[in-house]
Amino acid sequence: MKKKILLVSGCSNTDPNYTSLQHPDMNCDWPKWPELLAKSLDMECINLAYRGSGNEFIYSTLIDKLQTIKPSDIGLCIAAWSTANRRDYESKGRWRSHIYSYGERNFYKHKEYMRDFINRSIRYFYSFQNVCENLKIPYKQFAMMPLFENYGWQETIRRRTEDFPDDPVEQIPIINKKQYLTDDEKAWLNEYEVECTDHIKKSPYYNMINENFIGWPTGPYQSIRFNRKVTAVGNGYNMTHKVLLKDCIISELDSHPNAKGHIQIAKHLHELL
After folding, report:
1. Interatomic CA distance for residues 257 and 197, integer angstroms
2. Phi then psi for 179, rounded to 5 degrees?
3. What's the pTM value of the predicted model, to 2 decimals?
């Protein structure tokens, strides 16, 4: 009997051909979580994920692929969403992605832009749900990363460490980078998270996204990776913070899942399914 298809799209945490920028000589050719999940579900895996991709790429690649496969052949379709402030462009049949980073000069002007990015992503969530419902395709969606990850503080750190060749930003462990921010900037980040949460709750789609979005609406939970309580909607349940322990990422410099991390994600999803 022909196997059903597990159709997946996502960002670098899902990319079947991921290579580490921080460790270019590392062989990252371990099985990724979609392949592992497909095996446990006895399905054939089609993984469309690509590093650096945003939610427009994830949505578009899944919707386009669904037009080429009989709905009855699909056993499960999964959208592993990225952060909202990644912008994707399709040109001449190729996709390019850009991470919106406002830099140090605009540190306090980011909120209005982020609202627009969040609006766009929530529309993708709801539209993906409707397409799958209309086609009667089994589906799940979840946030692989925080919805409103704030790349501005990372850019600020980069600017402040460029003058110190012995301590470049690439060599600063991920969990310690925020020590380079001022107290005012840390307070701004907390305020930013609250405002983004309130904005999500005001979306007309907020209460229309159903239980097939794992963890939506997201609420408080304990981040096992960073050992802190996360309370923000949208930044609450996300797979990388919920599932990946420190020994499940490549290194302190590269927070993408290692072989054990992909096993953990696949195991967690299989249990939820």
Report:
1. 27
2. -65, -15
3. 0.85
Do 250 and 18 touch, CB atoms closer than 8 A?
no
Token pair for 188: 């701004």
Closest residue by Cα to residue 219 from 202, 238, 243, 205: 238
Q: What six digits make up the tokens of 215?
A: 């963890």
The length of the chain in residues reads 273
> What would the two tokens of residue 44 be?
């054939």
Q: Amino acid identity, residue 9? A: S
Q: Give SS3 for 184.
A: helix
94 Cβ contact partners less than 8 Å away, ≥ 6 residues apart: none
Sorted by where each starts, the structural domains of the chain and their CATH numbers stand as 5-272 (3.40.50)
Amino acid at 235: N
What does the pLDDT look like over 202-230, one tens digit per residue? 889 988 999 999 888 655 444 444 444 55
Please write the tens of the pLDDT for every residue from 157-198. Answer: 555 555 444 544 455 555 555 666 677 777 777 777 777 778
The whole-angstrom separation of Cα 105 and Cα 37 is 44
One-character DSSP codes across 49-115:
--TT--HHHHHHHHHHHHTTS-GGGEEEEEEEE--TTEEEEEETTEEEEEE---TTTTTTS-HHHHH
H or E, element range at 139: strand 139-143
Q: Pull the structure tokens for residue 96.
A: 């390019």
